[in-house]
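Below is one protein, fold included:
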Amino acid sequence: MRNTIIWLTTLGLLALALLVGCGGDDSDNGDTLAIIGTYNDGFSDHAVAETTWTMSSDGMADSVFHIASYSNTEQFLVAENDAANEYNPGLWSRFDWAYVGADLYLCQPAYDAASQAAAAAASGADRLDITGTGCGGFPWSKLTPKS
């Protein structure tokens, strides 16, 4: 009986954590995504809107990601890869962002997750090592605003 109560309590806390989120889901509380704009990382253009993130590179088809949730507080978003994307269509991505001074940096620690939950849980972005190997063994990409 005691093990059952502990298991149910643990399950309940896990469900509550998933429902509430660690720091909240700003996409559900009316806050606007904080990094809406157009950027360039030296290779690709990034057009970030409230519901989509589009990457464009010369000579390549656009990659579109449909934003499902985000947290401005924790500086990440989760998006479903468009079915027409050349790479990993229909799978899930996580985009983390961070500021160093006024400079905005991007890391995509998940690009082929099987589910929204798996993408949200992805790790690999080290905010303490933006310019070193803090993005899965590589530096984070600097996003320069486009005018």
Summary: The longest strand covers residues 103-113. Residues 70 and 77 are 4 Å apart (CA to CA). Helices lie at 2-20, 116-121. The chain is about 15% helix and 35% strand.
